[in-house]
Amino acid sequence: MTTELSVNLNAVAMLRNRRDLPWPSVTGLGRIALAGGAHGLTVHPRPDQRHIRFSDLPEIRALIDAEFPQAEFNIEGYPTPEFLDLCESVSPEQVTLVPDDPAQPTSDHGWDFAAEGDFLRPIVERLKAGGSRVSLFADADAAQMQAAAETGCDRVEFYTGPYGATHDDAAAAAREIERLGEAADAALALGLGLNAGHDLTVANLPALVARIPALAEVSIGHGLTADALEYGMAETVRRFRRACGQAI
């Protein structure tokens, strides 16, 4: 199985939003990423629009539909009524639900599925009825996977921040990889698909993919955008694709 790459455009949007100017272009860099072989584009529209703006969503949808119809649009966010309406207005191929407080700078934990399953089930059902695959942000906790599956979701996206934080400690990295692997094994046994994201890099992706060969997709923004400043977006996408095990 090939692990696909979805490029998160939030960091690009954050840079654009520093000035009242249309550059760097979110759709322009999204186009370069897709032309470089990215499987899809990810955005996380927050209520204050400090990164992606609501107006970006139909433009990204139009880009994919017109130029890259094989690609996927993945929208992340906390499922407020406004967020759900936004998703339904642009029909993303995948919606990733995260348990963020609107004030959080970035996603930093998964759902407590045992406690929040009743809240999530009707939302998952609504999004799936609209034609979107539903992925739920999850900690690397094998014991939570049964409750995750009971929400009716299609996939879980493992929060890999703790793994990314071990960039200078090989022993700690090995422990985090195994935690992720055990949670992945439990999820797969229940029929769930697997995504992952947060603080993934060219350096740490190969070990993750080796431990979880069934990993369907990684969504990467900060590290990929940082590398794009050095290597350019097209070459950075190729580097990350190779790190995912793709033959280029």
Q: Tell me the β content.
A: 15-25%
Distance between the termini: 15 Å
Give the beta-strand count.
8
By CATH reckoning, the class would read Alpha Beta
Could you say what the CATH architecture is?
Alpha-Beta Barrel
Give the strand order of the largest sheet, numbering strands 1, 2, ... along the chain: 1-2-3-4-5-6-7-8
CATH topology group: TIM Barrel
Structural class: alpha/beta
- Let me know the CATH homologous superfamily: Aldolase class I
Number of helices: 11
**Main sheet: strands, sense, barrel:** 8 strands, parallel, barrel
Shape: globular
pLDDT < 50 stretches: none
- Strand and helix order: EHHEHEHEHEHEHHEHEHH
SSE order and pairing:
Elements: E1 4-8, H1 10-16, H2 26-35, E2 40-43, H3 56-67, E3 72-77, H4 81-90, E4 94-97, H5 113-129, E5 133-138, H6 145-149, E6 155-159, H7 161-164, H8 170-189, E7 193-197, H9 205-211, E8 217-220, H10 222-231, H11 233-243
Helix pairs in contact: 2-3, 10-11
